[in-house]
Structures are given as structure tokens and as C-alpha cells.
Amino acid sequence: MNFDKDTNRMEEALKNAFRRREAPEGFADRVLSRVTERSSDKPMVLRHQSWLRLFSQPLVRWAAATGVCAALVAGGIYYRNVQREHAEGEAAKQQLVLALRIAGSKLQLAKSKVQQVNADHIPADQTESQEEKE
Amino acid sequence: MAEPLSAEKSTVVAENDFAEIVRRHQAMVFSIALHFLADPAAAEELAQDVFLQLHANLGRLKSGDHIKFWLRKVTSHRCIDCRRRRSLPQVSLDEAPESAAPTRTEDPMLSHRLRQLVASLPEKPRLIVILRYQEDMNAEEIAEVLAMPIATVKSHLQRSLAMLREKVTRAIGEVTI
């Protein structure tokens, strides 16, 4: 018999080749024991799911989303304030340093002038006292 | 007066029902997986997972036919997922090794050869052939299970059969079966 001429034979051969096989021995028992194992783990899963189930309500979802958005905005504003205060503090520090430098240079100038004046007056006094001794 | 079932008793009844469902359909689920994967251990693991999933979804299934349809559908999709995850090298039908051209063969050899050839088909056509010849499903039923157009199922089936016929004819020539 040629397969080209007899499609039914081919189909019959395929049905033979792909007939159902018996599941391995103890298959159902293994499935049932896995089901029992899972059932014993279930309370934890259920507790977890009950928390998640809260978010299945649209109102709670919106409230959560709004809360997250508000927290993000508040966080952004707080961060900007901190940044601004930090920048102001830096500017004040720079100004103080500049003021101290200016004051320091003025003091230096005054000190050198005083020293110069002292230097101009001391030789004259010394001359007068020598003359008095003589 | 009929006594109402306690929660514990009703659970036991449900578990007995589930055990009965497993025993009734285990050969079908295991065979689809075995014929598709050609690996008994992987087929058993997949079949067990299918029944665990069934246990979790049992409340949503309305009848025995619905359960059978659901099992075929989930098993088919899991087979394809499993195959993709394992990403075994897929041999096309043309590349499938041919036997040493025996001129005559007996049923077991022919069956073995056909299974080899079907195993070399791409995933969807292979599943279609398995559902058609193992489960004796028609194109409409297969299309529903695999969520494919009927025309696609028919064309896959025709092309697969043509290729199988050509390969078998080339390999064994005139065959008495």
C-alpha cells in the first residue's frame, strides 16, 4: 500500500503513533501531595494577598497614588529649600572672609604707619638726651 | 433531615473530586506533554504543574467539558512555553535524520519514525498534529484551544501531513501497514 494513494492509512498510522500513554505509576498521588503541600503554605500567601487586595479598590489606588505624588512634591520642595539655604550660607561665608581680609589689610597698614611714625620720633629724642648729658 | 456539610467535610469532598479529575485526565495531559517534549520526566513535571494550576482554578470551571477544554489549552500553552525556555535546538523536517531506508517496516517502527518526524516539526504544527491524532480533535476544536484561526490550523495540518507523507514515503517507500 502506498502512502501517496492512501491518506487513511497515514492517518491510522499517526493515530497509532500518538495514542494516549498511561501516566507514570503514582502520578495522581504525587499531584495530590503537592496540592497538600501548597495548601499548608496557603495562610501566609493569603495574608499577603489580603494586603494586596486592598489595592484592588479604585479609591484606595487613587489615594495611594495621590499620597505618593504629594510625598514626591513635598520632598522636592524640601530639597530645594535646603539647597537654597546652603547656597545662602556659602555666600555669607564668602562675604565674611572678604570682610576679614579687608580688615586685616587695613590693620596691617595702620601698624606699618605707627611703626614709621615711631621710627621718625625716636632718633630725635635720643639726640636731645645725649646733649643734656654733655 | 439532611445534615449540612461542615467546612472540613466539604473540603474532603472537594479533594476527592479533584483526585477523581486527576485520575480521569492524567493520561491525556501526560500524553500531550510527552508527545510534544519527548522527555518523560519533563512531561510528568509539566503535567503535575498543569493539575496544580487546575486545583487553583477549579472554582471557575463550570463543567466536565470545560475542565477538559481548560486542561488541553493550558497543557498546550505550557508545552510551548517549556520548549521555548529550554531552547533546545529545533531540527526542521528536512534536516531530520532519515532511517537507513528500510523497504518494509512494522507498526512499532513506523510509529517510532512518525514520532521522530513530528518531533522535528515547529512548535505549533507539532502541537496541532498531536491534538489531531492523539485527542482526535477537529480543526475547529484545535483552533479554539490554541486561539488560532481555523484556516491556519487547517493549513498547518495539511502542510505537516504532506511533509510527513513525503518523508515516510522517501524513507520506507512502499509500505505494508
Concise summary:
Chain A is mainly α and 134 residues long. Chain A is built from 3 helices and no strands.
Task: Describe it.
The complex is a heterodimer of chains A (134) and B (177). Helix content of chain A is 86%, strand content 0%. Chain A has helices spanning 7-17, 27-54, 58-133. In chain B, helix 1 packs across helix 5 (123-134). The N and C termini of chain B lie far apart (63 Å). Classes of the chains: A mainly alpha (134), B mainly alpha (177). The interface between A and B is large, with 29 and 42 residues.
CATH topology term of the largest domain in chain B: Rna Polymerase Sigma Factor, Chain: A
Number of helices of chain B: 7
CATH class of the largest domain in chain B: Mainly Alpha
Give the number of helices of chain A. 3
Share of residues in strands of chain B: under 5%
Most residues in contact: chain pair: A-B, 29 and 42 residues
The main β sheet of chain A shows up as: none
Helix and strand sequence of chain B: HHHHHHH
Domain count of chain A: the total is 1
Protein structure class of chain A? mainly alpha
Helix content of chain A: over 70%
Strand portion of chain A: under 5%
Rg result of chain B? 20 Å
Q: What is the N-to-C succession of helices and strands of chain A?
A: HHH
Please compute the radius of gyration of chain A using only Cα atoms.
49 Å
Oligomer: heterodimer
Compile the SSE list and pairings.
The complex is a heterodimer of chains A (134) and B (177).
Chain A lengths: L6 H11 L9 H28 L3 H76 L1
Chain B lengths: L6 H31 L2 H18 L6 H23 L20 H13 L3 H12 L4 H8 L3 H23 L5
Q: Keywords, please?
A:
heterodimer; A: 134 residues; mainly alpha; 3 helices; 86% helix; rod-shaped; B: 177 residues; Rna Polymerase Sigma Factor, Chain: A; Arc Repressor Mutant, subunit A; 2 domains; 7 helices; 72% helix; 0% strand; globular; disordered N terminus
